[in-house]
Amino acid sequence: MFNKIKKLSQKKFNKSDQHNQDNNPTNTNVVRSSRATPTTASPLPNGESQTPAPSPSQTPNHPMFTSTPTLEVLPLLKDVSSSDRPLLFMKKAHMCSCQCDFSDTLIMPREKEIKRQTLLELVDFLHSSSGKVNETMQSELIRMVSANIFRSLPPAHYENTGAPPEGNDPEEEEPYLEPWWPHLQLVYELLLRYVVSSEIEPKTAKKFISHTFVSRLLDLFDSEDPREREYLKTVLHRIYGKFIFHRPFIRCSVYNIFYKFLYETERCIGIGELLEILGSVINGFTVPMREEHRLYLVKAIMPLHKSKSISVYHQQLSYCVVQFVEKDYKLADTVIRGLLKFWPLTNCNKEVLFLGELEEVLDVTEPSEFQHCVVPLFTQIGKCLNSAHFQVAERALFLWNNEHIVGLIAENKDVIFPIIFEALEKNMKGHWNQAVHGLSENVRRMFMEMDNDLFEECEKQYQENEAKTWELLEQREMTWKRLEEAASLVAN
After folding, report:
1. Reported pTM
2. 56, 123, 303, 435: least buried by Cβ within 10 Å?
């Protein structure tokens, strides 16, 4: 009885869902909700309610477009004449809009294989030299791609358990793998072949690869399947390279995703892939860099350092930051001060990541820019040298293994020595880790070889400060002792 009720409710749900799609043809958002069976409706790639119809085969009365697509064996494209090939191509593409049930491997095995073989044939057709695709064929192809990849994504792990997003470690979560990836992979491959094809003119393709289409692709970066995100990264990168008029929109959309991650969702899935795309985009920026790019560095990229899940995407983030400094050396001071602004206070693992990124930034920093931030920078490095966590102290001392950084320090030794000397002396006297003790001794010896007179002056100043400190401690103890004696006299 329960199963009958469940089936009836499912039918009603499908009808109401189809009714909502008919009434809202421009709804283009990918919704993260419980996974439902994808519908066979094929939304238009440009989000419009009408499609150009240059051919009679595209008219609404054509049986190919009025009937529900069914999976059946059709002749091979290479076996028909060139005049019949466009219509057969569109029929195959329309047929592949039909979705298969992958909840059970025993359901629809024949239909699944037919669709897989058809998708493989379409991929080979686009890849071959004979793969001439006119505007009508492109329209049906992108319609089929949209019907397959644009779908509701499953809920996140914390949405199912009710736990807050910040309480979940993304590195420990098992990724969700799409059960119908055997078909989805071929659809992505087909889209990639379409985008990179030299036969496809950007002026024609922009009718189908529109802002709406690109926006929906970006929404799919929220997919938990790493295989899908890898394909999305490649496709979006190719779109950015081929369609010049999409570039400002893609950059702005990516930055908006960063804002949403930082200030709303805190869900880091897809951030690494987007940063990887952005790294190659930054590499292509012209010099001098435009003000909008500098603004996005400060407002969207540097704040990514404050996330608790930075370890998931830190490698890509560090690459982007270094690319900015390499493109415009004047941004070094901005980047270093940004790192100091978001420097972690209680997360030692994150602090080690920051020190590694700081070394990469300093490695491409010019001496003129280094002088602007030397005091706050080495004040923070001095704190890291005295960290009780040996990995933090050790990573900070490794900065002196970089020849370029040592050269920068040598040029500004009059400012740096007094800041660092006290931290080195404390490590020599009291750090519990022998490796840190030995590295501190090496850095101290390096300072002595650079400028012995300055070293002796810093040592003398340190001893005077230590003497004053001990004197203050003795005075404080004497004051407390007198207070205790006065209190005992009053009590008696």
Report:
1. 0.78
2. 56
Please check whether residue 444 is in contact with residue 462, taking contact to mean a CB–CB distance below 8 angstroms. Answer: no
**DSSP H or E stretch at residue 165:** none
Q: Copy the structure tokens of residue 45.
A: 């790639």
Is residue 196 within 8 Å of residue 231, measured between CB atoms? no
CA distance 102 to 438: 60
3 state DSSP class of 54:
coil
CA–CA separation, 178 and 38 (whole Å):
13
φ, ψ for residue 66 (rounded to 5)?
-90, -25
pLDDT, tens digit (0-9, with 9 covering 90-100), for 311-362: 999 999 999 999 999 999 999 999 999 999 999 999 999 999 999 999 999 9
69: left (phi over 0), alpha (psi -120 to 50) or beta: beta
Closest CA to 27 of 177, 222, 299, 219: 219
297 CB-contact burial (10 Å; exposed 0-12 / middle 13-18 / buried 19+): buried
For 77, the token pair is 């494209």
State how far the Cα of 249 lies from the Cα of 255, in Å rounded to an integer. 10
Task: Indicate if the alpha-carbon torsion angle 168, 30, 221, 91 is positive or negative.
Answer: positive
Q: What single string gives the DSSP state of each residue in 385-430?
A: HT-SSHHHHHHHHGGGG-HHHHHHHHHTHHHHHHHHHHHHHHHHHH
- Tell me how far the alpha carbon of residue 320 is from its chain's centroid: 11
Bond into 288 cis (ω within 30)? yes
From residue 43, how far is each of 100, 119, 147, 246, 421 by CA, in Å? 18, 19, 6, 21, 67
| Unique residue bearing structure tokens 């071929």 | 186
